Amino acid sequence: MAIPKLTAKGTSVANKERVDTRVERTRTTVLAHTYDLLVQDGFSGVSIDEIARRSGVAKTTIYRHWPTRTRLLLDACSKLGVNLEIPTQGTFETDLRQVLTDVAQRLENAGWAKVLPSIMDASERDPDVAKVQTLLQTIWAAPVVRIVEDAVARGEIRPGTDADVVAAEALGPLYYRRWFSRQHIDPALLDRIVTNLCRSLTDAR
Amino acid sequence: MAIPKLTAKGTSVANKERVDTRVERTRTTVLAHTYDLLVQDGFSGVSIDEIARRSGVAKTTIYRHWPTRTRLLLDACSKLGVNLEIPTQGTFETDLRQVLTDVAQRLENAGWAKVLPSIMDASERDPDVAKVQTLLQTIWAAPVVRIVEDAVARGEIRPGTDADVVAAEALGPLYYRRWFSRQHIDPALLDRIVTNLCRSLTDAR
Q1: Are B66 and B97 within one domain?
Q2: What segment(s) does the record annotate as region Disordered (chains A, B) (predicted)?
Q3: Per-residue pLDDT tens for B96-108?
Q4: Is A8 within the bounds of a domain?
Q5: What are the chain A neighbours of B173 within 8 Å (beta carbons)?
Q6: Which value, to the nearest 10 degrees, does the dihedral of the CA atoms of residues B134, B161, B174, B195 take?
Q7: Hey, is the C-beta of B103 within 8 angstroms of any chain A C-beta?
Q8: Is B101 part of any domain?
Q9: Which residue in the set B124, B162, B181 is minimally distant from A114, CB to CB?
Q10: Which of B125, B173, B200 minimises the CB distance to A172?
Q11: Nearest-CB residue to A173 (from B123, B125, B172)
């Protein structure tokens, strides 16, 4: 049975699409301004008042889309550092080197590197934020997990390799440099991580 | 020339010591309450008003000892997680395993593990806090650096080993689990770190 293209009140599909587009544009505007404020002031520094002022979207409209400040912030966080490329053309070693080089570059330049500690801080006190942070980390670790799984599937590294453990071993030292010791992530460190992981995952098979 | 034991106004050495002791007690009380509040509310959540209320020490007195809120917080931070034991009795492998087991235990239980993200967050915006955070990390990494240096001195691991790199490789994955992926630091991960570091630092000499 064909679904009528017009409602009883004459709202056409084209009109519905225009409304959807406008709603989508409002959401995108609010999220973009929220993201900018997150990078500038961190998770705890962002207020709905300031987002409304900057975006020109009324507070009531913002609250219609996101019932709480936390929900809006978490939605904006999910935009942080996405679009990580996953190389799948090379060997485990070249793929891993490419991913870690990319992560190191982002850690030293991307806006989310400045925001993340404020999310981690909020996570210590708010289980909802902690859940989202864990999810974000799953997204950021996905390229490492993927190349481990591919390399296992190709028979290149040991079957049963725990990709989560490899992610901790590969990303942990880079994160340590960026956020804890606040030292430059030098190529020698990347080299050691790649070499040692390759050796420990291919040896003793 | 002997320094007079009494001042013109008759303040005895014993009196001077009593004053010093009282001053010291005030400082200790304020720092202890600041530390507790840091663990509870994080770096940005602590106010001098609340510290004064809890400690019973007047705000004017607090400001006489620490000219700014930041100086007081940084002073309290320097108490975080100190007294790390440095094992120096075993081999590089047994010493490293003991240090990492100890760190893993502290990461999952110590109060400073909850506070650190708030300090990291403040570091992103305040260079003075960043300097203190780097210093704190130097203190926390000291046991790893020390056992690397000792093992090099004994000829057990490769000469010229960069202890800072080893600290990043050893501690990074544990920190990753505690603060980023928020997963348990399981003994299998500790095992892999110790085994791989030992192999990469003793091989190919």
Answers
A1: no
A2: 1-20
A3: 999 999 999 999 8
A4: no
A5: 168-169, 172-173
A6: -170
A7: no
A8: yes
A9: B124
A10: B173
A11: B172
Residue B24 lies in a domain: yes
Q: Does B40 touch chain A (CB under 8 A)?
A: no
Match 């993340």 to its residue by tokens.
A116
Does residue A80 belong to the interface with chain B, where contact is any CB pair within 8 Å? Answer: no
Model pLDDT for residues B27-37, shown as the tens digit of each residue? 999 999 998 88
Closest CA to B75 of B141, B135, B124, B140: B135
In this structure, is residue A111 part of a structural domain?
A: yes
Which residue segment(s) compose the domain that B96 sits in?
92-202
3-state class (DSSP) for residue B58: coil
CATH of residue B98: 1.10.357.10
Q: What is the mean pLDDT of residues A81-95?
A: 80
A-B contacts at Cβ under 8 angstroms: 136
Burial of B83 (0-12, 13-18, 19+ CB in 10 A): exposed
Residue written as tokens 């700014």? Answer: B68
Residues B121, B180 within the same domain: yes
The total of structural domains in chain A comes to 2
Q: Are residues A115 and A144 in the same domain?
A: yes
| A198 and A114 in a common domain | yes
Tell me if chain B has a CB within 8 Å of the CB of A182.
Answer: yes
> Residues of B with CB below 8 A from A112's CB?
none
* Residue of A37, A46, A107, A121 best to disrupt the B interface, most CBs of B under 10 A: A121
Q: Report the amino acid identity of residue B144.
A: V
B188: nearest CA partner in chain A: A165
Both B166 and B189 in one domain: the answer is yes
d(CA B36, CA B32): 6
Same domain, A96 and A195: yes
